């Protein structure tokens, strides 16, 4: 398995869920911008599951040497890369913040995804799982920079799924709602609409095994976002969402 964004609690929970369910991986490639933290997780799955892994440093904000991981090969790719950034009004007009949100969530991520997608295509097998967001379903004033980047990533995954379908490669788009992770720590989240990393991992694994195309981590979010998407614009623009 290839894991992009392997410091993500959801990514780590998914790896553990897959191993607990008996999935067999010759090696798990843990791509990370935080090698120390990821090496602790690598030791953990080695001790608990006797799972061999390799930690590979990658920083989307720097030039990437693709030759350094040309040896990486797998049948499952799990992408949990994400950056929420500063969603305040100050953050909105901070171009560095805006660029970082767009770069990490989309523009610098897509070339890496394409690199591995080409490998999957050449083997004509595999599953690519990408974590997008419900924030990408419709732009809302509270987080529309982040939401616009996730909307672009959702569209990318949709097109990739369409393109790779007859190449025998499946693409699964996951749309988490609120999740209790380090990224959302301190935010006032409704507990009834918030999933833990373990809950998210269980839902994602189920969608993976059922070969779903698009899945919401908590089913209630599909209803919520259907309502939000269908509010007429002349009403929607007046709402504080």
Automatic annotation (TrEMBL):
InterPro entries: NAD(P)-bd_dom_sf, SDR_fam
Superkingdom as given in the UniProt entry: Bacteria
Transmembrane regions listed in the UniProt entry: 214-231
A Pfam family hit: adh_short
Annotated keywords: Membrane, NADP, Oxidoreductase, Transmembrane, Transmembrane helix
Stored Gene3D superfamilies: NAD(P)-binding Rossmann-like Domain (3.40.50.720)
Keyword rRNA processing (UniProt): no
Keyword NADP among UniProt keywords: yes
Listed PANTHER family: DEHYDROGENASE_REDUCTASE SDR FAMILY PROTEIN 7-LIKE (PTHR43391:SF14), RETINOL DEHYDROGENASE-RELATED (PTHR43391)
Similarity remark: Belongs to the short-chain dehydrogenases/reductases (SDR) family.
Designated name of the protein: SDR family NAD(P)-dependent oxidoreductase
Source species: Chryseobacterium kwangjuense
